[in-house]
Task: structure prediction
Amino acid sequence: MNLWRKLACAVLAGVLCASAAANWLAPAGYARQYREAANAPPSRAHWLGTDEIGRDRFARVLYGTRISLLLAPAAALLSTLMAALIGGLAGYLGGLWARMATAVTDLFLSLPWLFLLITARALMPLNVSPLFSVTVTFLLLGLLGWTTAARVLCATAGSLRSADFVRQARAAGVSGQRLFWIHVLPNLRPVLYAQFWISIPVFILSEANLGILGLGVAEPLPSWGSLLKELEGLVSVGDEPWKFVPLILLVAVVMSFQFLLSGQDQVTA
Amino acid sequence: MLRARIAGHALALVATVLLGGFLSATLVRLAPGFDADERQLDPHLNAESLQALRTARQHDHNVWRFYFTYMNRAVHGDLGTSLALGQPVRTLLGDRAPLTLRLLTVGLALAWLAALSLALTAAWLRLSAYDAVTTMVSGAFLCIPAAVLALLSVLWNVPGSLAIALIVFPPTYRYTRNLLAKSYSQPYIITARAKGLGEARILFWHAVPAVAPQLLAVAGVSVSMAIGATIPVEALCGLAGVGQLAWQAALARDLPLLVNITILVTVVTLLANCGADVIGHMVRGQES
Result:
């Protein structure tokens, strides 16, 4: 493990620990409004100041980080499982199944991601609870984000189908489900891991985009997207630099995932 | 061979539009509030008029009938009326498309100019420090959400097309750089160098033509990325284009408008990818 990957691990571990300890670090919670100190600059009481309705920004950053870092991997897991089911199975079965899976993934891939997301998000009712909105946002990311991974898995499973060890297993009388579960799937594991890790930063960035556009997690629940929406009201960068903390945190986390992925590439290669 | 390829793409395009149209019509039909008609709240209407309004909408209840009506209208250029803006979708798209087209053209041109210049220089110089810096810069841009880049462009008063360029540049640069690096590791490049060919000749005569078809494929994908970037850029920079229209439609849950925009965008993306594939095929044909 090189120095950059160690640093990336340390950043991710630090951010995860801080967000996990949000209840202790910011016991007042993310929704409490200090009406007498609205729009306050950083102070001892509020390390990153308060927002326009007096909520402690430090607490919101911690809780928002927890939501983004918990649910992005959950969405990544869902999309990877869907990709394994659709792409892996179709690639293993080959023929018409593989062609159908390729056609469906091509159809999804031809739709720009953000257009697809906002269309699906617009179908949801307007007056949803914050918890429902956060679930729906990440569920949509998971349900719509499987296509690229499915394409990769379909191709990999297709190549495994004609691999020597699969042929040998087939010649020895192994077939059907046993061949898939015992011989093909374990060999897809490195690709599945890689796709899972690749999806996490993609979903974090997508949630941030949706949040800034007002189509993400509903208030008062914080997420990186809703926290970054505050940048909309800035007049200049130097005025309130503490508002950039969520952005710095997001960039640091996504960059850390990138450094870790560069190591994953070497593993899967 | 080329004709078969074009026919295949045309078939895929038609199938996508038909399937996309069906999904869109189903979404519009099943969306909450489809049956609602504001006129039913009008106290001036008597029971017979209200019944007439309900009867008029009854034929829309069957999804298949609704789909055929929808597609029939679409074929004749009638894309329906926006629920939120109360204007024909076709007019709205016609008014806003030129701005989006201009943004996309300038943004893509800037992104490709930056990506190609940096990637070609990296391939030519082969300096690890230069490569590390450019990779780091493009990597940093990859970690910033597109909407934040749009917000920063407003903050620093730079044109929206530059924001689109900054969103498209990082992946384009990385693909181009990787393709060129792969091309440089091929035996024919080592042979060319051993024969004493200059770096410029190796780059433009051997390395770039070898990756031209793949670069064209990346060009097709970059169009899709740029179209996706129009939503945050136009919405947050206050530019009245198709991206902003899609965002407004999503906020207002104006599904007829939103699904029509999505189908239009899909067709444009497919055409760009098909064009890139066909040109790439022609380039490969000329090379062989």
In short: Chain B has a mean pLDDT of 86.
